[in-house]
Fold each of these.
Amino acid sequence: MLDARGRSCPEPVIMIKKAMAFNEDEYAILLDNRTSLENVSRFARVAGYHSDYTEENGIFTLKITKK
Amino acid sequence: MIKNEKIVIVIAGIIIGIISVTLVLLGNPANMGFCIACFVRDTAGALGLHRATAVQYIRPEIIGLVLGSCLMALSKKEFSPRGGSSPLTRLILGFFVMIGALMFLGCPFRMILRLAGGDLNALVGLVGFICGILAGIFFLNRGYTLKRTYSLPKIEGVIFPVIQIVFLSLLLAAPAFIYFTEAGAGPGAKHAAITISLAAGILVGILAQRTRLCMVGGIRDLVLFREWKLLLGFLAILASAFVMNAATGNLSVGFANQPIAHTDGLWNFLGMLAVGFGSTLLGGCPLRQMILAGEGNTDSVITVIGLFAGAAFAHNFSLASSAKGPTTNGMIAVAIGLVVMLIIAVVNTRKAAATVNN
């Protein structure tokens, strides 16, 4: 579980990019703003992952899984 | 969804380019439909923070950008008062980004508009800008961070938009203690009508907030992640402004005699190097900082305060360039700025583990 809450652009995407080096099938990342949500989702999709998120109280939990 | 986002940002860029040239046609200085640096500097002058009489005017475009962003954020429930991410470091970075911008005589937005007007000096600036971003990326990849930001009380996020409304009131009321460049006395006297500038700022603020437009992000995301989205936006601005300049006889290709510009290649390069490096360390170009400030991001508000301080110092200590070229003080200031940015980058970089939780 990656915690990118409070992190501003482009840190969340750098975090997921570094995590993807471990080639896991699934990642979960906590975000708290839409811009980061969009950026990470976009990056994940281009990298060949499917992305989905849930939101609670302004915190997004983004789950990405390898296609 | 990816395709859709790209189409949206290209359309937004085309509109922004058209608005920018229109502002010039309606009175703004040449190749300066928008310039966050110059306009913050002009506003600082109007408030008496500096006394350079040629550049004193509360620019409604800035007010519009902030309010447009604020309204758009509120409507999409993205208004989010937050702050606490190395505020003083951001203040200093904002300060030196302004110093760099006034060395080149433009922020990244104006750099694009100058290019679109045929000002090839902006090409030199662009090279410096890209180099600065690459330097910032070097540190980002090694774990550079200004640490996280935290949620703040609503009033914290509201203060800056309210200040913009105060500025608008001062502009409209024009009390004696607010400075206005006299007609013919400099770029500060060249401006479109208040309502037009305000409306233009609001529209661009809305579009920029919605699309997350950012000049730095454009190049940065391409290099870091092979992501074209933001860059397409600013290419669209360049293209549409260029076409409109050509169509309205406002195109003048060359290095010499460009409006509010100088031909000193080295210092155009170094000025924008500082802007690119500093903006990357800040997480966004001056336009993006203004938009974020409208969304309640007080880290960006602090950065904007740094921009104001930089502009005030620049004109109080002869740091800003003129059409004749850079000043010696300005060269020293930019050199100091680059060193300070380097120190900030190094001190805030540490090898970050991929899944660290902090």
Amino acid sequence: MVETLSPRDLSGSASQVPAIEAEHLVKCFGELTAVNDVSFSVLPGEIFAFLGPNGAGKSTTINMLCTLARPTRGRARVAGHDVASDARSVRSRIGLVFQEQTLDEQLTAEENLRFHAVLYGVPHDEVNGRITRVLDLVALSPRRRDLVSTFSGGMARRLEIARGMLHTPAVLFLDEPTIGLDPQTRALMWEDVLRMRAEEGVTIFVTSHYMDEAEYADRIAIIDHGQIIALDTPANLKAAVGMDTVVLETADDEAALRALRRLGLRVEATNPGVTAFVEDADAAVSHLVGAVGVAVRTVRAHRPTLDDVFLHFTGREIREDHVESQVPMMMRARGARRR
Amino acid sequence: MTTIQEAPVRGAGLAGDLRVAGMVWTRELIRYTRNRTRIVSGLMQPVLFLFVLGYGMGSLVGTSGGFNFRQFVFPGVVAMTVVMTAMFSAISIVWDREFGFLREMLIAPVSRAALVLGKTAGGATVAAAQGAIMLVLAPLVGVRLTVLLVAEVIALELVMAVAVTAFGVFVASRIQKMEAFQVVMQMLMMPMLFLSGALFPLNNLPGWLTVITRVNPLTYAVDPLRKVVFAAQNMNTAARARFPTGVSVFGYRMPTPAELGVVAVFAGVFFLLAIWGLATTE
């Protein structure tokens, strides 16, 4: 893992022009309001995650920011340019990675990148250098001259991220970038993304419905039914949900409860065992076990996850309505390799 | 940590557009040369028409002044090769849509005209090349080639291919589903080829067929090709009478420049429609 997992210090950057600025964005499709009054701003160099179940309005929002959909109301500026009135300026300053693969599998990795470089007007004398650079960033240099049809799904995805960075965009948009990838590949991809941010200073806007991935973000917006229902750092969001808990099952839970209460801890009898509410569950375990004064059978430490966060703010699990829709997506990904 | 967000829009303007068109053109060529099966299978159908139809019909049609049906049909089959290759190349946009690459092109900050120009030039180059390969078969069916003839044929192939590719790009921009591709090929391509005079002379046809062939723009691309090929052969009066060239519209025998003018207008109209088609797609 790359070490920049913790939120970056964003103090002092308030004077900078935001990389993304959305003001009261609304998008209607006929009767349906897909995005309903969404406002937020993203600072340069920030990793900003948009989290929510399918159909929550994530892709519609990203499409508006990328100038692929016109806002019904409200306005947005990306890299200092209005998405509605100055779409071409926005497009030349952003990199895009979609859910669906958009590579030409009959071309090599290098040819795909070269094509992109021309589309985005990378100067002639910089093209080779940039190709070498972005391939290095995603560790695909050895496959430079290989046909993309020989790439695994994960490699293709990472090549797309490299391609998105080729023209040194101010903002890189990643729409569900890890969909259909195995956990190991997802981790690799995130390492690539963090490396991009660290070495190229790019702002990253990512949508996901994987809660664990949002931990990589500096700030998270949770979107549901077209509205942002929470927006903060991962740590603050988790803090809003509640404290860490440690559940102890002992030979005598009554005695354990009394012993821990004497220490001034907030403890509740739960069946089975007793539950202690603490600041830091991992650190508290040994202290608690030592303090109960009776034999401890099992200990479980629990720290609120972003799944808990989502549950807390929406009253339901993020994944419940997602499982079905993932299947055709993966079949599609497999189908695409048939060519 | 530097942000590059204030760099100007690069690659804009005519030079940028031409560079993009060049890249799209290059991609067509790479894909064509890399796909040997496509080159070979693209030749299968014309070869079938040339030899099977050529010999099959040849005995029926007979020989006039030492000139036979195979020699007559040869320019038509070359045209057929060009049309099919150009159409296939253009319609690969449907594939690009299916496999996502069209999106990569359409979201880029480039003009649609540059994309259509590159696609048209690419399709035309590939189609002319495929048509040129067919010329290798000329000696086998008794068609005499000269350097001038080869140059003329390739030039006419390019004109024809530009028109067909522009038409194909427009059609492809309107097709959303892969399934529709086969339908389009069957419903548009084959009738247009059959009704273009590629396989039979367009004189002395029944009225309704005359009308259809005269409306078909391909007619005006096939005839000039046949004219230049025939001009290089030793044909006596009997042969010329038996295997006539030229297209008459309302009794007016169209000269080659007029025919090519029709093709050029057709190409221009569909070039613009293709730009519009890609601009309104997605």
